[in-house]
Amino acid sequence: MKIYTKTGDKGTTALFGGTRVPKHHIRIDSYGTVDELNSHLGLIRDQDIDPHYKHVLINIQDKLFTVGAILATDPEKATLKNGKERLNIPKISEDDIVQLEQEMDAMNEALPPMTHFVLPGGHQTVSFCHIARCVCRRSERLASALNDLEPFQPESLTYLNRLSDYLFVLARKLSYDLQAEEVKWIPKKES
User: Where do the DSSP E strands lie in 11-81?
Assistant: First the structure.
């Protein structure tokens, strides 16, 4: 099977179900940004971090493929003629969201309380995590805009929201584990 099909040479691509849309369509931007996020998570996973975090990140990457598939499905073709769903995979569940929350709670127990905003940085691995957090927020904004136009599974949108929180806490925990300095943002007073 060839990787190149030439079907997108004129600026369109196919959704799951066959509908062709412009490559700049918000649906494409939404799942493309989820794909970008997934790649950033791979970069974090490739760092010298605790194996538990690597395991959690692999699970998250798997869930992001599910979110991407949901976003890539034409809602008008989501159900086959026989009444079955075109996307025959487990969807994002409440348990998936709770798992992120439990991971955050466990990491937070080891961290000092936050008293100020934190400037991204301090260690390359931490910076990768903050970049992933920002890409996650962008994916959530795009998915939210798409949801306003064509609603999709609500848990997917919730998952992206919770994931950005998880990535923030993971960045803080990695700073702690790597003994990197957390630089607090302390606004200067006007004179």
Answer: 12-14, 20-22
Structure token digits, residue 79: 């159900």
Distance from C-alpha of 185 to C-alpha of 163, rounded to nearest angstrom: 23
- Cα distances (angstroms) measured from residue 34 to each of 52, 96, 138, 140: 23, 17, 9, 9
15 and 27 in contact (C-beta within 8 Å)? yes
pTM above 0.85, yes or no: yes
Distance CA 75, CA 96 (A): 23
| pLDDT single digits (tens) 41-90 | 999 999 999 999 999 999 999 999 999 999 999 888 888 889 998 899 99
Beta bridge partners of 22: 12
Query: Which residues have CB under 8 Å from 141's CB, separation 6+?
Result: none
Q: Provide the b/e sequence for 85-110 (b: ≥16 CB within 10 Å).
A: eebeeebbeeebbebbeebbeebeee
Alpha carbon distance 107, 32 (integer Å): 29
Quickly tell me which residue has 């950005």 as its tokens: 164
